[in-house]
Predict the 3D structure of the following.
Amino acid sequence: MNKVSYYFAALILGFTMSAQAQSGARTKFTPSYAQDEVQAANEMSSETTMSQRMEVLAPRTIPNPWVTLEPTVGYISSTFNGIEGIGGASVDFAERMQTGVGVLIGRGMWQFETGLLYSTRGGKLTNLTETTSYGTRTANWDVKVNYFDIPLVARLSLMHSSRSHFFFRGGLVVGILDKAWASGEQTSVSAYGVSSQSLYQDGDDFFNSTDIRGVLGAGYDWKFSRRVGLVAQAEVQQSVSKVNTDNFLSGKDVYNMGAGVSLGLTFKL
């Protein structure tokens, strides 16, 4: 039995040494460049996989550029204050229009708004009565004042500006006078009877070259896509300094006041 055991032990040891020798021979004759290629391929596969994983796991955000254009058209209900009761006249609101392009700078919840708008303001003076030695004259005037408006406004969005959201806005508007005029009708009553005539008056010399107004407003911005939307807003504006010169109601301080609504598109650049 001992001889048989020795025999099997020697046989197993021989097979083990032969297998190790064959493995060493195969390793010895494996080209070194093949190992380098295998290692490079493994590293490339690992990097590619990691890059793909990072791309999948990265949060996908909506592009939100810094500049947004807002071409709009609006309706203004405008009047004067500060001249009520002069000559028995009442001052009424008049329908006006506004159009132009707003520019939003910034992104997120806070943005700065500027741009260039063309607006018509003014109001209606009715039953402006004057007594003369010949009788009385009563005039009704529709005064129109055109401005190039430059908003200097802060806008606060209640959500991120890249999504549909409500917003509030407030600041100043600098109005640069373009043209002013008044048209109307006058009725005269005298001993000779009653007569009427049409009136027209160029008013460029009646108004200051600039009108600085405070503005408060709110609106909603609907997003059709990542870059295009629809904006609707309402606002009130009030002059912070008088708009008239001494050629128009000297001694009185006249102010522009109005409320408006507008509708437009938004384009993120």
